[in-house]
Design brief:
Largest sheet: 4 strands, mixed
Number of strands: 11
Structural class: alpha+beta
CATH superfamily of the largest domain: Winged helix-like DNA-binding domain superfamily/Winged helix DNA-binding domain
Shape: globular
CATH topology of the largest domain: Arc Repressor Mutant, subunit A
Distance between the termini: 39 Å
Strand order of the largest sheet: 1-3-7-6
Radius of gyration: 18 Å
Number of helices: 8
Helix content: 25-40%
Order of helices and strands: EEHHEHHEEEEEHHEHHEE
CATH class of the largest domain: Mainly Alpha
CATH architecture of the largest domain: Orthogonal Bundle
Length: 247
């Protein structure tokens, strides 16, 4: 039974968000508050811990931590709402062209209210046994972000593009580039059924995400559409990792 499996409690304070690259290229329906909570929780995980099959990971996030990172009038309410939303989310992975794998992020979310201090109210979220192999025991093919860089963008599209750029930036070259097919980009951004006109995709997703990242983090990003005939087949992003990337 899943409930009987070991729960490792992590409280790492290194300020790093580490994920297997498979998660970077997955689809993840998630609101902005849910993604912010996810990053806070991931920054508590010690990614170099050894992975044992079936292990789950428990992480605690307090209302005080939420308030110190995000502008909010009611940190406990916002934290609790984010945890409730994240509990219902899943990752969709495509290991090959004919396979779609779904994994729940969480097995549990526990809410602890402190009647004497709102700041001490907290949630404990328990990452599922299915997702843990993508979070610890990583030896290669993973992406590292500073928590401050991860939570700075103000939109989910910008956060996902931010992950992709960090993934491709793990080398010794100051200038890097990212190439994605248009189908993969739509899958990651979860706009397969939206913005069918490329002009709308460009305006509401691509340029909106780039403008957000450049304004919030100082990244220098340019991009181009790769066409075959009149159809856009791929996207290529160019960026200067010396401006804003905090590895």
């Amino acid at each position: 039974m899943e409930e009987d499996r070991e729960i490792q409690v992590h409280s790492y304070t290194g300020g790093l968000v580490v994920q297997d690259n498979a998660l970077i290229h997955s689809a993840q329906s998630m609101s902005l508050p849910e993604r912010r909570l996810l990053y806070l929780a991931l920054s508590r995980i010690y990614s170099e811990a050894e992975y044992t099959r079936g292990t789950r990971i428990g992480v605690t996030v307090t209302a005080e931590e939420w308030a110190s990172n995000f502008e909010t009038a009611n940190p406990w309410r916002d934290l609790k709402d984010a945890a409730e939303g994240l509990y219902n989310r899943e990752v969709r992975l495509t290991p090959d062209a004919n396979t779609l794998r779904k994994i729940r992020w969480l097995d549990e979310s526990v809410y602890k209210r402190n009647t004497y201090s709102i700041d001490r109210c907290h949630v404990q979220i328990v990452f599922s046994g299915g997702i843990v192999p993508y979070l610890i025991g990583l030896r290669d093919e993973f992406t590292v972000m500073q928590l401050s860089a991860a939570i700075t963008p103000s939109s989910v599209y910008a956060m996902r593009l931010n992950e992709l750029l960090h993934q491709m930036g793990r080398n010794d070259k100051p200038l890097s580039w990212l190439h994605l097919s248009i189908d993969e980009f739509r899958f990651i951004m979860e706009v397969q059924d939206k913005y069918q006109k490329f002009s709308d995709l460009r305006k509401y997703v691509i340029e909106a995400a780039i403008n957000d990242l450049q304004a919030s983090s100082g990244y220098k990003i340019t991009w181009e559409a790769i066409r075959k005939g009149r159809s856009v087949k791929a996207l290529k992003f160019f960026y200067d990792r010396q401006l804003g990337f905090g590895f």
